[in-house]
Here is the input.
Amino acid sequence: MTDDRLQGLDPASPDAFRKAAHQVLDGCLDQLFAAGDHPWQPVPADVVARYAITGPAMGEEALAARLVQDVLPYGTGNTHPRFFGWVHGTGLAVGLMSELVAATMNANVGGRDHGAVYTERAVIDWARGVFGFPQGASGVLVSGTSQATVIALAAARVRALGAGVRKTGQGGQQLVAYAGAGVHNATKKAIELLGIGSDHLRAIPETDQGMDLAALQAAVAADRAAGAVPFAVVGTAGSVDLGRFDDLNRLADLAAEHGLWLHVDGAFGAWARLAGAPWDGLVAGIERADSLACDFHKWMYVPYDCGMVLLRNEAEHRAAFAARPSYLQGQDRGLAGGDPWFCDYGIDLSRGNRGLKVWAALMAYGPDRLGAAIADNCERAAQMGHLVQATPHMALMAPVVSNLCVFTADARLAPAEQSALNTRIAQDLQLAGIAVFSTVTLNGATALRAAITNHRTRPADIALAIAAVDRARQGG
Ligand SMILES: *Cc1c(COP(=O)(O)O)cnc(C)c1O
Here is the structure.
């Protein structure tokens, strides 16, 4: 009996496994090359039932078939050319290669001295150059901007209260942070997780030019007068609702004047930096931030998940996170060598090889080709804006400033009726597999929202999607 159970976990037949693995690869390639035939679809109930983990193990070859038939078709649909929902990246073909290699290497990139550490460092070095951060600035790849924000604001807190805060906690000191009213929820969550309390994240009113800086200054002065400790201002490069950008140069001036840490949430918008004129002007001043959070999985199209935090000052980064017990001591030679270790820059000790898929994208396509796709997405959003304005009864709800287009299908209706209509249209087009818009509520009315972070979208896709919205409006 013991012999039976201990079959081990490597393939019993390498040849059979090779054949099965090639079938999976072919299934993936077939789906990838026909991305336009694979919109989101609901997962059928019988497929969900087959996901239950019951019964005897099926072995590797049956699993291969199951992966292709029951799993592969039921993604988010964000690989489809008319997927404009939320802010979803659309993946890259080379991601398929790099993920295969990463899974085979199975590297733990918490630290030590091996190849995956060097490819991630190469990515961080490259990003440091792109964003104009100084030599010696540090960074780490993380799950996404949400985690990156926690890391950045934890370092800001150490600057404000000293490294002792890691031991003693904040005591009676009340830290306060500032951000535009439309700041992404990730900042609010980070402030909550750090124990600062989201009541102490001031929502500064915004105009089309971003945060109202006079209101920001008044809020800082009022908090100081009340005995609180203003410590950080969060600028947004690409707001999630409207794609707006704060004036980062003016924010950097103000942060310097008031002794605040400037953190930039550039989850997707930071990459306008690669898109050339006029789009790169939106992020002018980003090089002056103390920290930047952004994602490779949104507007750099890299497969999920991969975000990044960059810190201007490596010593401040380390001061907030470094802590290695003796079993993790670095050595001057051997596998335990190498410095820095990424575990000194963030929350995770064990870490996957996120760097490889970014490295692969940059090596294969280069920043110019990626930047051209980003610029084209902005042009597609502008095209959509023009079509909306040219279609009877449709109207923009806000100017198109980057890659977001927010509009209503029928501006003649009262807000409640507009909300119902736009919500229905979004659902109908999703279920019909025609296009994926998401929705956002502005001034009491729910609007249709397209965030174009999709390198597969062509002008004809935009025209088709807006025509479909128009038909759906009339067909309701
Ligand atoms: C998506 C997004 C976030 C959160 O990033 P994740 O990668 O999903 O954690 C934060 N800020 C903005 C502006 C975003 O668009």
Notes: The two ends are 65 Å apart (CA to CA). The chain is about 45% helix and 15% strand. The chain has a mean pLDDT of 96.
